[in-house]
Write a structure and sequence with these properties.
The protein is mainly alpha-helical. It contains three helices and no strands.
């Protein structure tokens, strides 16, 4: 997996996958919050990522520590 940002939007493949899956899952849930474990499981279907790396990127994207 490449950690280099894409020239189109500056996102890495993992960041893009997280945001895509988050949006898709929120729509499925009628706008309800998405549990982190559910999000991780769905992102894992697209990208091979450790829990620690996933959490670090998610924290950076949302701007706070996951609880």
């Amino acid at each position: 997996m490449s950690d280099l940002p894409d020239v189109r939007d500056g996102l890495t493949r993992l960041e893009r996958a997280i945001l895509f899956v988050l949006d898709e899952t929120q729509r499925e849930r009628g706008g309800a919050a998405v549990p982190t474990a559910m999000l991780y499981g769905r992102v894992l279907e697209l990208v091979d990522v450790s829990v620690e790396q996933f959490q670090a990127v998610l924290e950076r994207l949302i701007g706070s520590r996951a609880r």
